[in-house]
Structures are given as structure tokens and as C-alpha cells.
Amino acid sequence: MATAAHHYHFDVAMTCGGCSGAVDRVLKKMDGLKSYTVDLATQSADVYTDEVAYEAVLEKIKKTGKEVRGAEKDGSKVDV
Questions:
Q1: Would you say the pTM of this structure is higher than 0.85?
Q2: Predicted local distance difference test score (pLDDT) of residue 2
């Protein structure tokens, strides 16, 4: 698979499978993502896309009610 133009990494407070499942569900419904992973063990979500803005992905994750503790956009720390 070709590499995506953007990689967003989110540090998300997730304590159980329900938490990670909620994040997984909102990302699954987003159009324009090349791929994504949600990892309960590391409490992180990684999103790969060519077209979706960082802010749009951040807002979707926040709508789950999970705390986003930190984030990176293309390898650089950004505000949450």
C-alpha cells in the first residue's frame, strides 16, 4: 500500500475494550482515511490519510468522551 501523506498519532485515555472500541467505531465511520490502528495496550490511535484534516480526526475522537492527552501531526507535537 502507498504511504499516506499524513500520519496523526493520538495519546488517548483508554482503560478497557469498550473505550478502544468507541474510538475504533468513530474512525471506521470517517471517510478519507487510508488506514488507522487503535491500541488499547499503548492507549494510542494512529491515523494515516491523504485528505482528512488533523482537527477533524481530533474532534471525532473527542466526541467519544475519551480524553486526548497528547497528539502528533506528521511527527511534530500539536495542541489538543
A1: yes
A2: 53
